[in-house]
Amino acid sequence: MRTINAPAPQQTGPALWKVEDEDTTIYLFGTVHILPANVQWFSGNIARALETSDTLVTEIPEGAMDEPAMKAAVVAKGTLPEGKTLRGLLNPEQRQQYEAALTQLGAPADAFDRYEPWLAGITLAVMPLIMNGYDPESGAESVIEAAAPADATRLALETAEQQLDFFDKLPPKSQVAFLMSSAKDLDRVVAMMDEMLNEWLEGDADSLAALMNSEMTDPVAATVLLHTRNERWAEWIDARMDEPGQVFIAVGAGHLAGEKSVQDYLAQRDITVTRIQ
């Protein structure tokens, strides 16, 4: 059975878990992909776990999305076929909400007309954060990569192209739902992200996951973007436990709390997960 230990009073900061046997320790750390540059969080148990690990595992290889080939793939996968426009996929109410969101950002109504809904949704979610001091270059993964031992093996659970496909292959209805979750709450994006950041820094994993996944109301998107991946990652962890060593896994914090989390799928495999911070 899974065991989640409450952190000791002196332990503060983002949540950290571990899975271990006689010769293998695997740490599970939930990241936030975009953070303000001045946020200080890397210390204590997290720093020690990373610095003593011989393997660092992330969702995708560090910097993979910045490769020219991947930037081209984003354009190719995220562009609608000729003759179609994003606003043409929306009903009148959706179109009104979407255009209002663009106006709020100071962008023309046709700014993302060539985008598929999933790409427009990601863009709408990120733009207000960047405009308010959040920086993808300051995300937790960047800090972890820089602090990891230089000789540590780097592995990834997925490829960058796989992650693009998760979004690109969503049914049109699910893509539009994903877009509208960003558009209709645009004026709350920064406030919600500030709240998520506070929950993350306090180590309140359950509240953080609830906030992160609250807009994931479409069951198809939730299955594709969260649950199926969590189950596959738990399978990877199970197999990796057969090899000795110390592994630090850093994945989005929304994957490590709530129903059908990585820990839930590990529990189904009778693997004990212990919270250490």
TrEMBL record:
Domain of life, per lineage: Bacteria
Among InterPro entries, the record links this protein to: TraB/PrgY/GumN_fam, YbaP-like
A Pfam match: TraB_PrgY_gumN
Annotated CDD domains: Tiki
Q: What is this protein called?
A: TraB/GumN family protein
Organism the protein comes from? Qipengyuania polymorpha
